[in-house]
Amino acid sequence: MTMETVLPDPSALGGPALFDTMSTMRAMRRLTADPVPDETVERLIQAAVWGPSGGNMQRYEYVVVTDRQVMARLAPLWKRCVDAYLATTGKHAPEGMDEAAYGRMVAAIEHQRDHFADTPVLIIPCYRFPEPRLDEEGLAASARALGPEGTQRMMETQTRFQALAEGSCVYPGVQNLLLAARGLGLAANITIWHLMLEQEWKRELGIPEEMNTFAAIPVGWPAGNFGPVRRRPVADVIHRDRW
């Protein structure tokens, strides 16, 4: 697998501003301790709310943490999750990423871990699908449409289907939030490490048991500079008409 530096194309459909934003939207983990105004945070959440939601149900909720004492109580949880990640999945550089670049990324992760209590804003998107309203007639029609094998596979993958259905209602809004942060000059990165201790996070933040959390997004003013992202070449990832 190869990586290339992605530079914005001013002639791209949609105009240069959006493409420049996307092509320089690195995961920014080094933040200053300067506060982010409430109205700016609300603009980020507004951008998230504009994202599509399955069935237009709009059942998302966003926990926004700015209180220093709350952030200080979350810092040990963040450290435990990061340490667990770096000891397992994050122990080795991904294929195609050289060790020096990965070392810089790990250093940024460790910096964020060690300074987490100074994070200006932490945003946690939550979502919970309503209980499905099913009846025998509808289930029978579904089984006819899918066929016996399809119905069996659907039953076997119901847990995964539910998780993906909820995620598809949340992550478009999260991407909007990240784009808005970059457009406003804010640094941010999306993580799901908190899921390793999700119950502890939910207890600390008073999140209802029935709600699922989908990310922990630190946000603040960047201590470094934005720059072009490095991604796989488009030609390497396209499969036209079939795999």
TrEMBL record:
MF annotations from Gene Ontology: oxidoreductase activity
Coiled coil: none
Originating organism: Streptomyces californicus
Tree of life domain: Bacteria
InterPro entries (alphabetical): Nitroreductase (IPR029479), Nitroreductase-like (IPR000415), Nitroreductase/BluB (IPR050627)
Domain spans labelled Nitroreductase: 26-221
PANTHER family in UniProt: NAD(P)H NITROREDUCTASE RV3131-RELATED (PTHR23026:SF123), NADPH NITROREDUCTASE (PTHR23026)
This protein's name: Nitroreductase family protein
